[in-house]
Amino acid sequence: MAILVIVESPAKANTIKGYLGSNYKVVASKGHVRDLPKSTLGIDIDNNFEPHYINIRGKGDVIKELKSEAKLASKVYLATDPDREGEAISWHIAKQLDIPESCACRVTFNEITKSAVKESIKNPRKINLDLVNSQQARRILDRIVGFKLSEVLWKNLKSGLSGGRVQSVAARIITEREEE
Q: What is the four-CA torsion angle of 128, 132, 137, 140, rounded to 10 degrees?
């Protein structure tokens, strides 16, 4: 049985495969596999802002491949990017593959060199739930602000306009500068 390593990028997958050798199978998730639905808020505000994630449209084949490879693997390493988005991607993949949080092997590297990759494989850690929660909080805030602000814009200005957490602040700064 091979050891499965899941990364985000197909290009990284090929490079890392070359570093690890034939005992490893390296597969790319191609970024996020789950997100909030586009058609609804996707957040249960009355239930502690609980997000409702769904598989991203077009990621079915990727998820199916990851599940298939994980079943054949003796071990699974989650090697997504070393930031909060990468941590959340690893968490979502672990959920999809039914890997308990206590058993998830998270590895990160800040450079894609043979020594950095091999060293990270020797030192796996658990998924950092603080980083996952940070990403989820940002995503939930973006969604709530974007959905609610867009509703106001549609009612008061023009249908189809959108606003969000970052756009709104930028628009205010521009408006204040224009008024000076």
A: -170
